[in-house]
Amino acid sequence: MVTFLANDFSEPRWKTAAAKNAYVLLSRQRYLDAATFFMLSGKLVDAATICVTQLNDIQLAVTLCRCYEGDNGPVLKDLLWKNILPVAFKQQNRWLASLVFGIIHRYDLVLQSLTDDLFNLATEIGVEAEASSYSRMDPLDTELLILYRSMLTHSPKYRAPLVTQAELIAQTITIFECLGTPIMSLVVLEWWRPWFRC
To answer: What is the pTM of this model?
Structure first.
């Protein structure tokens, strides 16, 4: 094994040998080793697929993609869109959905994932998701309002309807009032006052 790994895997001969070994390891259900050899052979798609489907390790797949092709590679975008985004919609996880859209530079969808109904958004963009009675922000998630406001500077084209923005603000203020921090409620109101003038 050590002798084999000492070879130069930039040469086609050794890439082919690594791919053959990866398929053998895959047939023996040694999935982590197979993914490693697929990486040596330059087959990032196969390595990432094994990480997601066999190892159930999406984080490893994302790490491999980012190390191999950077943050804007096609394999990473495909992995995020086909594997991670459906999980975010299924779990109604606004943070994960907004992270995926941010990585693929769809800032308009980041904002929509923070304010809109996630099931409707999934249907609109063609991602399979299950309907849920959960339609608005998590009642204890005041940070969504802060993230939404900061994202408005990156994507001025999209703004949630004023009614939705008002709901987010009202819910955040209510949470701060229940926590016994009325000063934070006033800060939120003062913070958003210029946005409602335009």
So the answer is: 0.69
Q: How many residues does the chain have?
A: 198
- Per the CB < 8 A criterion, the answer to whether 129 and 118 are in contact is yes
Give the whole-angstrom CA distance, residue 134 versus residue 162: 21
Count CB-CB contacts under 10 A for residue 129. Answer: 21
Q: Rounded to 5 degrees, what angle do the CA atoms 114, 159, 134 make?
A: 30
User: Which value, in Å, is the radius of gyration of the alpha carbons in the chain?
Assistant: 22
Is the CB of residue 186 less than 8 Å from the CB of residue 169?
A: no
Rounded CA separation 170/185 (Å):
9
Does the pLDDT at position 101 exceed 70? yes
Contact 99, 113 (CB under 8 A): no
Q: 41: which residues sit within 8 A by CB, 6+ positions away?
A: 9, 15, 16, 18, 19, 22
**Contact predicate 148/115, CB 8 Å:** yes
- pLDDT beyond 90 at 186: no
The residue among 13, 36, 14 whose CA lies nearest residue 26 is 36
